[in-house]
Structures are given as structure tokens and as C-alpha cells.
TrEMBL record:
Keywords: Glycosidase, Hydrolase. This is Beta-galactosidase. Belongs to the glycosyl hydrolase 35 family. Transmembrane segments: none annotated. Residues 504-562 form the Beta-galactosidase galactose-binding domain. Residues 373-485 form the Beta-galactosidase 1-like first all-beta domain. It comes from Vagococcus proximus. Residues 8-327 form the Glycoside hydrolase 35 catalytic domain.
Amino acid sequence: MKFEVNKEFLIDGKPTKLISGAVHYFRIIPEKWRDTLYNLKAMGCNTVETYIPWNVHEPQKGKFNFEGLADIEAFCKLAQEMELFIILRPSPYICAEWEFGGLPAWLLEDPKMRIRSQYNGYIQAVDDYYSELIPRLFPYQTTQGGSVLMMQVENEYGSFGNDKDYLKLIASLLKKYGAEIPLFTSDGGWEAALDSGGLAEDSVLATANFGSDANSNFKALEAYHMKYGKEAPLMCMEFWDGWFNNWGEEIIKRDPNETAEEVREILKRGSINFYMFHGGTNFGFYNGCSDQFTHSTPQITSYDYDAPLTEWGMPTEKFYAIQKVIEEECPNVETFEPKLPVFKNIGCFQVKEKVSLPSILTDLTSPVKNDYPLTMEEMGQSFGYIMYRTELTGPRKTALKVTETGDRVQFFVNNELKATQYQNEVGEEVPVDLPFERNILDILVENQGRNNYGPTLISPQQRKGIRGGIREDIHYISGWEHYNLSLDNSKEIDFSKEWIEGSPSFYRCEVKVPKPENTFLDCRNFGKGVVYLNGFHLGRYWSKGPTSYLFVPKELWRNGVNTLIIFETEGNEIENVSFSDHPVYVD
């Protein structure tokens, strides 16, 4: 197959409209990829698009992962087998409401790091990553008999910077390691963004991202092409058919018929990529965080996105409305009935064991001692929690305050919660009573996700944990033990030790299932924390909503006994866990 970017997209010389949908393989259990791609074709799409998140594939510097959720090669093989064209976006930065926009947190171990720039430490890290990634993608290009049509150089760079030499460096690295197919950029559909983020002068295709007003956005895109004497196909690389959601905010919905009519306007003039077609789930600690200028708000575990397919893979009213428009505007496109997943309430189960974090702290991790608090990055930790511990003399009353800390802070004196601070509360004074000669002060800090977009991408706030220190009166307290709580060893928890009422605790439940089923864990009686099923990190929950569930795909269950472990930070005692055949939300 020969793919060309001319006045139109040409496949074997034939003008072809690309009707694409975004499917993030890393947000969907691999066993569900096939049904998702089947439904993508059923709606009328001929192409699948996906980002490639650097932090998933190189979670630690020099240690690469291409298995399970990270098996991009298996995803490409499956898409080819199902006769779909593929668009890949291996740009170092992806945004995607993903932790740090896909950039690995270990970059921040370099105090001079300047991401998305010509800084040598950054470019060398990209080079090392591409030396592993791009050769794996090489066989799937159309030039090698595959179906990958295009690769992205950078993602919405025009909303961040205007360094064309940097963009050319990234493009050159893609080519250095084997990219032979056309390259593209994607930016907001207005002049300044396209000018800053595009490389039309180097024959890199510019595409636009928008959710409405196709005519105005395509007009700006056409003008950008003409500025460089190009006649190029018009493509909306991200048609925002829905939106993401943040903790503590209402779920955002978009009218299906209004969405479909915007799709019609795009198809009349060019090609489209639905962002998203199937959003999936932010498993683990991978949710991103929104830059709200005055504060940051982390995204929820669900990445449903109000897309044509729900988080759990169910076609929506929006799916059928868009399918109808595709049939009307592109009558030669094949559409058909989608597959519908099945869900079951598997029951309620009693929690059998519980243990408090302070009781097993030294079992989970070895302390690192330092005279002042270290950040997560200085500790070589990317995700999760970090506990800071010191001793304070007494008896006496005093007040403490923490400075420059990300993101959520809990103060404990002798295992008793004294305060929880978040966002603008961080730094407020906390009165404490020190009743004994020797008192243990624990500061538990949660990394809720690094910003994935906006000016704070390069902010010191991206470094998590305590960046400043803890003050008593006007002086900083010294002599700290640091406990890394990335919680990747949850299977090793000793539940025979003490449970302390009101403390952050682990709860263990055995769930017996005669047959694996898709289901939803009901989190309405929980406070805040994370859940593991048979060692797999299902994601975060939080009572502030808007969601009160965690989606549990059937592929994560075993026949018979399964182990569910909950880490609850708010002191709520969890006595049982319940499941539902539908998602539940905060009232």
C-alpha cells in the first residue's frame, strides 16, 4: 500500500477521506482492544489513532516496558489484521489528560531540566527513548507493508512554544531511527498556534484540533498551508466530541445530535479524528492534572470523555448519531451493528483483614534519612505517596506549617490526624499538642498527578512531595526520615500487625467469582485512596466525586478467589465491598 499526502490523502493513488477514532491502548485492557476496534469500524471509521506515552514505555530511565497495556506492537498488529489504517502520535509530549502529559517524571531529577526545548539533557533523553521505540514501529509503516500512515512530531506545540529548531530536532530523531512515512503536527485552529507549532516549511503536514466551527478552523488551516505555497488535505486531528472530568466537578456532557452535526461540517470539507472514540480508564497513578491558573485540579480515574463508546465500551446515543451522519455524508463507507458488552453485579463481600500504614511502614519501604525534606524526584520516586517522619520533644503545645508542597498533605502526631491541607490550604498553620517527651510527627503527602497542559508544565510545582520544609515558629525542622510509598509492592503487606482507628490503612478482601464478569466496584462508602485487584492497580477513588465507582474489566478476575486490597487514607473503616452492574455517581 502506498500512502501520499498531496492535495488530498492518496492511498494507492486514490483520494481517501480518513475517518479516524482515538483509542488509547494504554487505557484499555488488551483483551478488549478487538471489540473496541470492531465498534470503531462499525461506526464507519477506517482509521485508528493513538498517542504513545513515553512515561508508560520508559517508567524508569533506561528501563523499557512494551508488555501488557504497553504492548504497542500487538495493538498495531491487531489494527492491521482488522484492516484499519493507523495514525501514531509518538511525540515526547502528548497532553491527553495523562500524568505529566506523558513525559516521564524522572526527567525532573535533573534540576536544570527544561522540557520541550533544545536543552541537551532533554534531547538526549528523547534520543535514547526513540532508539528503543521507533525501531519497534518500523515494520508497521506503509513503506514496509504495514498500515501506519503518519506519525506526529509534536503535540499542540503552538500552545506552548515557537522554537522551530526544537521541532526540527524531534523530526530528525524520528527519521534517524526509522520513520519513513509522512510526519504531521497538530495545533489549535488559529493563526498564532499554527504558526508557532507547525513545520510546513519542512513539508510536515499541519492539522488542526477543535470541537466546533469547522469552517473557521479549516479556513485558518488553509491560510497556513497557502503561506508556504502548499495545497494540503484538511484534517481535524482532534475533534473534541466530549470532554474530560476533574475531581469535585460536575460531569461534562455534549449533546449527541449537536455533536453529529459538527461532524457533518467537517466531513464535507476534510478528514476527521474523533477525540475520543473510546476513552477508557486512567489505571494506576496515571491521571493528569488541569492547570487552572490559580490552582490545579486532578482528572478522575474514568476517562469516559462522553465519547461514542463509554469508559466500559458501551455504544452511546452519540455513537449512533455520528454513525448516521457518516452514512449520509460518505455513502460508500461500510457501517454495521456494534458489539455490546455485558455487566453483572457480583455481590457484596466482607473485608477479612486490615492493618494501618504506621504499623507496616518499615515493611513496605526502607527509610532514607536527610537533614531536610527531599522531593519525590530526589528520592527517585515518580508516583504515589511519600511519608516524612521526625521526632518532636514535649510535653508542650506548638504550631506547624508546611511550605512549597505538592499536592495533598496530612499531619499526624503520634498516629492521630491533626490536619489535612490541599491547594490553597497548604501553608496554613496547624496547632498541635505534644503530650509526651518523644512525639512522632508524620507528614503524608500524596502526588495527585502532574499537570499535563499549560504554563505550569515547566513550573517547580511539577516536583512532588515537600519542596520547601516544615516550620515550627520561625525555623525549619531538621532530621527527617523519608518513606517511598509508590505502593508497587501491595502484595507484600503484613495484615497480622496492628490496625489503628482513624489512621491511613490497608484493607484486604477475598472476592470469590465462579465466572469472570465486567462489573463496577461501588466506592460510595469509601473516603479517598486506591484499589488493587490481584495486584493490578485499578486507580484512585475520592468521595468528592463526581464518580463513585471503579470499572473492573472481566479480564482482571480469576475463576475462584481474588484478592482486593484498598489503601484508604481518610481513616474510614471499610467493613465490606460491593459491586454493581452499572456505574454509580456522587448524589
